[in-house]
């Protein structure tokens, strides 16, 4: 996730081509199709990238361009390229959404790392990844 949050770089070395990272974390769905997520992360404002959700509209938790996924057993991984940071939480707890753990971790991460300007704006992304 660190490489996805940092344009393909890991510890100062280019591990993945920047263009490949940009494509992977961009919304690959056509502009007229939306992805509302599933499970604990269901909400409007999501697209779908290479294997994960992409925020195409800012929310009160995640800014435009955030990429990530959540597993059935409550593991989450999120890359926030605008902050060059990522979070990974590995668990094996089915139905943990009842405990609000995934939401609590995401909200704590947002409050510690992200600025208010990034999470409340009305920007959105097209499938090319460009702000509109």
Which properties best describe this structure?
132 residues, alpha+beta, Beta-lactamase, five-stranded antiparallel sheet, two-stranded antiparallel sheet, 4 helices, 22% helix, disordered C terminus
Largest sheet: 5 strands, antiparallel
User: What is the straight-line distance between the termini?
Assistant: 25 Å
The level 1 CATH classification is Alpha Beta
The proportion of strand residues reads 15-25%
Q: Could you say which structural class the secondary elements and strand pairing correspond to?
A: alpha+beta
Structure explained in plain terms:
With 132 residues, this protein is of the alpha+beta class. The chain has one domain (2-120): Beta-lactamase. The protein is 22% helix and 18% strand. It has 4 helices and 7 strands, in the order αββαβββββαα. It has helices spanning 2-5, 18-24, 101-113, 116-120; strands at residues 9-10, 13-14, 46-48, 53-55, 67-70, 76-80, 85-89. A 5-stranded antiparallel beta sheet has the order 3-4-5-6-7. A two-stranded antiparallel ribbon has the order 1-2. β3 and β4 (53-55) form a beta hairpin. The longest helix is centred in the C-terminal third of the chain and has 13 residues, at 101-113. It is globular, with a radius of gyration of 14 Å. The protein starts with a helix and ends in a 12-residue tail after the last helix. Mean pLDDT is 77; it is low at 119-132.
Give a topology summary.
Elements: H1 2-5, E1 9-10, E2 13-14, H2 18-24, E3 46-48, E4 53-55, E5 67-70, E6 76-80, E7 85-89, H3 101-113, H4 116-120
Antiparallel strand pairs: 1-2, 3-4, 4-5, 5-6, 6-7
């Amino acid at each position: 996730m660190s490489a996805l949050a940092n344009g393909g770089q890991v510890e100062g070395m280019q591990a993945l081509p920047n263009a490949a990272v940009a494509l992977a974390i961009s919304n690959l769905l056509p502009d007229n199709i939306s992805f509302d997520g599933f499970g604990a992360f269901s909400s409007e404002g999501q697209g779908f990238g290479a294997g994960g959700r992409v925020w195409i509209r800012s929310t009160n938790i995640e800014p435009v361009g955030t990429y990530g996924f959540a597993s059935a057993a409550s593991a989450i991984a999120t890359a926030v390229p605008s902050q060059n940071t990522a979070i990974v939480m590995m668990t094996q707890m089915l139905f943990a959404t009842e405990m609000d753990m995934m939401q609590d971790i995401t909200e704590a991460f947002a409050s510690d790392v992200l600025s208010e300007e990034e999470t409340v704006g009305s920007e959105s992304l097209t499938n090319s990844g460009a702000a509109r």
